[in-house]
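Minutes, project check-in
Item: structure for the 137-residue chain
Input as provided by the requester:
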Amino acid sequence: MRVTDVLNKDCVMPDLGAQEKRGVLDEMAEGLASRVDGCGVAVPHAKIKGIDAIAVAFGRSKKGVDFHSMDGKPVHLFFLIAAPENSTVVHLKILAGISRLLKDNGFREKLIRASNGEDIYRMIEEEEKRIAKSAVL
């Protein structure tokens, strides 16, 4: 499963306004909740009772956010996943897909520099295709 199978273009948030961890989670959850049937989302990787499909949102903070990361550096790129309670396999596949996307520093830099949400979505889509093609070779 590709990230773009569940990342809705309307859930790409290229200019997060929050400056701290909780604010990013709240801002992304609010954006995602408006597009998902069921209760609101408060944290990444949340399993939500009552929703029937996985939903993903992407957010970017150009300034960076103190997200209490292990390396202490500000975080610029965020994926938020809301998954049905019984979706462990699909949930893990999406996490793996996001991990594959973001392990390339050059790709991360492109996302940070992208001019808008449409460009970000297109970049993610193209990178997934590139990764899939290289996996076949």
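Outcome recorded: The first helix runs from residue 21 to 33.
No further action items on this chain.
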